């Protein structure tokens, strides 16, 4: 098709869509008397027989794709609706595949052929070895051949595998059988991306040009495969693993990506101490689908959206409540007494993890102006149920809302906004206090996000909460019990600070950008630290100042200081000289 004909076809199609013409047959949604059910209430409609948005909830939540691509009557007759996005989509594929190294190609082959649930175990880091042993999880794909294999390759049990071993997450009858069953259930009969592939018929990148037109030359290569004049190349080791039937081989959504994220979220539910690392592993493994030349960014984003919705639906299904509880308890009992094996943790660097995840949330695809507030999908809060167990369901929804992605990305803006959830960021707590947050924590946790908002925080419970962000929330901070620790100088935002009990740990320094009322409890600072209070500091009678360290001075400076600490506690073997002025409290440490 020449360029002028292509432009004419696109123009006519856009005009038809604008005028209210019918959607493609596979996606056509007849008028309904009532709004569709929420995905979590309708997820079991995702079966092969249902390939319309009207009947299949999975196809429906992915229907942001309809703003990018008009499905044709055959696999090779679709039409681009958003040329900027889909051209950028293909350009990303060209850039990645043209620059991949042999090592990246080999890894892409392994992740293509290896069972996806097994691949995700790497996200357990120092627990991975113990998990594989306890779950009897094995793989037969541990490396890539040097050239194209003569036949198709599947993951099979390796020779010499321990009795009872199983592929993927492992054996349901193993010492970690409940965890295995949870992963298998999340990846169960309702979790396929194939109905959506059949509905959208968006070709794989190696079959398309930069303009997302099919690039069929009508020739066969030496392997007997059709030749496509595409700028995207497939990893050589995977050439015989490609499908010969493009009509049944759509690229959107990526099935491997769907599987990686489903497994990761199931593992993360059972082993929440590795929540962020497992989410990172899913993003990292999904990128190998693009490196392989098998998928494009929109395919991968679609797979992630589908998996997020499916994981929430299945984990939130009351039928799976007992299994969830058993898996969490089993994992805690199994890993609790174990000492993690020292070694390389592929996802042990938090900053590196964020660099993996952040660009892949949108893949930098063009964004349109939009100001649609994020509506957290019904049931999504279950995804944080074990990571933030001390928060209520409504609080977990608020965490998801305040850490979610902005509007303007067509795929992410699809029905229910599943694509706008940023689970990696949500694992670090609130992004904003838009209403006062009362948190009762008896364990230990750290909120690392930069928290804004007009409201404030009240900390209760016997546990320790650490705030490390560059926080700007304005509603103030109140400590009533337990420990509240400042991991940054502006940890407590820009409002007033009140300590009515418990221990406030100021660490190496703190800036209180309002008044500070310390009526009871303990202020703990380090020698050499400086606490700056923009307003007045009022010290009550039942108060303690603890200074940690062996030498140096701790200074508390305010506009005005009223009252004195009842007790000053320092490191054994040392004494403190405490000086009060109208605007400072100075503690100098020296040996006793």
UniProtKB/TrEMBL annotation:
Signal peptide: 1-33
Pfam families: PAP2, PATR
Entry-linked Gene3D superfamilies: Phosphatidic acid phosphatase type 2/haloperoxidase
Source domain of life: Bacteria
Keyword Magnesium annotated: no
Domain Phosphatidic acid phosphatase type 2/haloperoxidase, residue spans: 178-315
Protein's name according to its UniProt entry: Phosphoesterase
Organism whose genome encodes this protein: Paractinoplanes deccanensis
């Amino acid at each position: 098709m020449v360029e002028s004909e292509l432009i004419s076809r696109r123009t006519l199609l856009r005009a038809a869509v604008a005028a209210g013409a019918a959607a493609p047959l596979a996606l056509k949604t007849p008028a309904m008397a009532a709004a569709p059910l929420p995905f979590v209430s309708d997820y079991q409609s995702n079966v092969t027989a249902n390939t319309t948005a009207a009947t299949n909830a999975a196809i429906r939540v992915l229907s942001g794709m309809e703003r990018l691509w008009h499905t044709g009557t055959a696999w090779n007759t679709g039409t681009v609706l958003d040329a900027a996005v889909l051209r950028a989509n293909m350009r990303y594929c060209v850039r990645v595949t043209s620059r991949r190294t042999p090592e990246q190609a080999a890894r892409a082959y392994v992740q293509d052929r290896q069972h996806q649930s097994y691949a995700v175990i790497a996200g357990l880091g120092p627990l991975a070895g113990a998990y594989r042993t306890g779950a009897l999880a094995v793989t037969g794909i541990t490396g890539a051949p040097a050239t194209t294999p003569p036949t198709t390759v599947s993951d099979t049990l390796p020779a010499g595998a321990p009795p009872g071993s199983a592929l993927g997450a492992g054996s349901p009858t193993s010492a970690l059988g409940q965890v295995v069953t949870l992963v298998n259930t999340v990846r169960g009969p309702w979790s396929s991306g194939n109905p959506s592939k059949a509905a959208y018929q968006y070709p794989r990148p190696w079959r398309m040009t930069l303009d997302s037109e099919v690039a069929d030359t009508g020739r066969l290569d030496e392997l007997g495969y059709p030749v496509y004049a595409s700028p995207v190349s497939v990893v050589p080791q995977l050439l015989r693993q490609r499908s010969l039937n493009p009509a049944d081989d759509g690229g959107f959504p990526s099935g491997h990506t769907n599987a990686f994220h489903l497994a990761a979220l199931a593992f993360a539910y059972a082993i929440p101490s590795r929540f962020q690392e497992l989410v990172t592993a899913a993003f990292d493994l999904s990128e190998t689908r693009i490196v392989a030349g098998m998928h494009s960014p929109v395919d991968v984003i679609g797979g992630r959206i589908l998996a997020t919705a499916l994981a929430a639906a299945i984990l939130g299904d009351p039928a799976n409540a007992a299994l969830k509880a058993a898996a969490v308890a089993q994992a805690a009992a199994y890993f609790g007494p174990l000492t993690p094996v020292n070694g390389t943790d592929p996802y042990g660097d938090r900053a590196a993890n964020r660099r993996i995840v952040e660009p892949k949330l949108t893949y930098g695809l063009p964004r349109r102006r939009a100001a649609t507030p994020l509506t957290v999908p019904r049931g999504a809060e279950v995804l944080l149920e074990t990571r933030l167990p001390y928060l209520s369901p409504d609080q977990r929804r608020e965490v998801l809302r305040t850490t979610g992605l902005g509007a303007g990305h067509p795929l992410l803006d699809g029905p229910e906004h599943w694509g706008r959830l940023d689970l990696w960021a949500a694992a670090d707590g609130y992004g904003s206090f838009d209403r006062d947050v009362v948190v009762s924590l008896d364990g230990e946790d750290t909120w690392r996000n930069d928290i804004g908002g007009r409201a404030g925080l009240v900390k209760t419970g016997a546990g320790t909460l650490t705030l490390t962000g560059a926080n700007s929330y304005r509603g103030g901070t109140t400590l009533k019990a337990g420990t509240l620790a400042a991991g940054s100088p502006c940890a407590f935002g820009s409002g007033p600070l009140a300590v009515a009990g418990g221990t406030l740990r100021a660490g190496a320094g703190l800036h209180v950008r309002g008044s500070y009322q310390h009526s009871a409890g303990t202020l703990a600072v380090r020698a050499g630290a400086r606490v700056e209070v923009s307003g007045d500091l009022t010290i009550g009678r039942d108060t303690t100042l603890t200074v940690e360290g062996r030498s140096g001075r701790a200074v508390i400076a305010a506009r005005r200081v009223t009252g004195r600490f009842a007790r000053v506690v320092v490191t054994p073997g040392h004494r403190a000289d405490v000086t009060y002025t109208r605007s400072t409290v100075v503690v100098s440490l020296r040996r006793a």
